[in-house]
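$ ./design --mode recover --in tokens.txt
reading tokens...
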């Protein structure tokens, strides 16, 4: 992850993009935003499990494989995207 300058996170129609220098901080911000949403029990528990112990390693694996990380959830009758993307160094 040394080739990036941080991580940008967003939750479609919930939060605008925010950039963090460290991956753990970006993931904590995502979870802080997600956990207060009216997700329903199943979605909440799935996200709580995913953002629990080992989340940094899980997301690092997604980033290494796919170059970005994304999930979705349903709320108020529609699907919303959760995104985390590395901010690449310019040059």
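writing sequence...
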């Amino acid at each position: 992850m040394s080739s990036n300058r941080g991580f940008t996170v967003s939750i479609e129609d919930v939060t605008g993009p925010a950039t963090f220098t460290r991956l753990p901080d970006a993931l904590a911000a995502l979870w802080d935003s997600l956990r207060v949403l009216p997700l329903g029990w199943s979605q909440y528990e799935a996200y709580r499990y995913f953002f629990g112990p080992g989340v940094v390693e899980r997301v690092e694996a997604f980033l290494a494989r796919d170059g970005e990380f994304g999930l979705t959830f349903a709320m108020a009758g529609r699907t919303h995207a959760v995104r985390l993307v590395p901010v690449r160094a310019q040059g």
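exit 0
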